[in-house]
Amino acid sequence: MFRLVHNRLVKYLIITNNKYQSHLRGAVCNIPSSAASSTMSLSHPPKMNTTREQFLQNMQKYFQSTTTGKGDIDLLALTRPDCIDIYLDNNDYLHLSYDPRLIDDDAYQHSMKSVISKTEEISHQNLLDQKQHFSMPRQGSGNIMEGVFLQQACLQYQVSDLLAKKILGKESVYLTQSGYVANYGLLQALVIPAKTHIYINTAAHESLWQGASRENLRKFGSGIIVVDSLYSGKGSIVDLIELCNLKEQYNCMLIVDESHSIGLYGQHGCGLASLGNVTDRIDFITSSLAKAYCVRAGFIAGRTQEILYVREKSSAAIFSSTLMNWDIQRLQRAINIIYNADKERQRLMHIATTVRHAAVTLEFDVGQTPLPSPILCLNGGPNLFSKKLQSYFENAGISGAIFIPPATPLNGSMLRLTFHAGLSDEDVSRIINTFEFIAQHHRSDLPYTFLKRSTISLN
């Protein structure tokens, strides 16, 4: 995610860095001011490709570069979706999207029953019996307007405060329309118009944190370190303690995206930053809430004054409509459910450990992680090999998500399997049996998926 945000910001900076190009007197075409202010004849346009012709050329060039020559998005789709009964292609880690406490249509009733008092400790009894409730919209869906116009007493502010104080351990939270918007808006506020270094490895999504290596920090000095705590491209877990040490040694700022770890790790699912006891050492925590929380939203968490600054500098807060109240009500319920989901978290980690151990034993090139990870990615290499992998699992009634460029490096496609707490023991056995079948019958079909024999330890 950060790689895409970073690339867009670079393009934005290139355009906006030259103020003259952003004015009508020449726009972005470098038209001389004298020509821009004069009357120009349209009867003899310059002999060059029109904008549409250039667009069509770019489109044709792109399609020619894809695997089929017709685009690659069809590669992501299952061939026989009706045959699937074990779904490992989404991020519903705690199986929350099937929880009636979350999906009940009577959002108002749930809001009345499951609100947490700001002045009392959270407990299971509080979640069930708390009579105090948040302010509800008086009409329709509340204020459908830009986030900068929200009032302090609104539902969004109250749920933001709940998330900040009770879950994240941060002073303030700004709720955004998505995790992408959170990351983009935060980097926009921090980078523009200042000139600063961003330590981020754009070569490979799963190793973004390597951009904050000691070598780069020594070479370029203070800057902004951006990482995912758990990388969706490999299921690898970053060493947040080491990064905090680097951040402090080189006087950097640190942004941690907890999209795939919030709700899963730490006490009450507070995330990897909380588990590592480094929350106070991290400047900003961001996340999508569309993973474990199953809510269409995102957030930026940090110090109160700094979050206020980000809100007032973020284009999404100024020029885009804010969250709808039913999304905020759903988030309110999700917070209360996930807070007490220790049983589901334990089940998820047991499943993740069991399947990864089986895959490693069968010599799949997946590697180990310092903590159980609910994401297991199988290397495909060129795109069509990942499609093969997907079809083998599909034949067993199991779905997996194909990742291709630009979400992966070129010729680095993969099949991602994401586990969830709703899997039964029979489901887990079937998943492992499918791994065994592929290892026994299709090893030669998948040259990038297994460890090379020369690299396998004899121990």
From TrEMBL:
* Family annotation (Pfam families): Aminotran_1_2
Q: Which BP terms in the Gene Ontology apply to this protein? A: biotin biosynthetic process
Against InterPro entries, the record matches this protein to: Aminotransferase_I/II_large (IPR004839), AON_synthase_class-II (IPR050087), PyrdxlP-dep_Trfase (IPR015424), PyrdxlP-dep_Trfase_major (IPR015421), PyrdxlP-dep_Trfase_small (IPR015422)
Q: Which residues form the Aminotransferase class I/classII large domain?
A: 222-433
**Cofactor annotation:** pyridoxal 5'-phosphate
Taxonomic superkingdom: Eukaryota
What is this protein called in UniProt?
A: Aminotransferase class I/classII large domain-containing protein
State the species of origin.
Answer: Adineta steineri
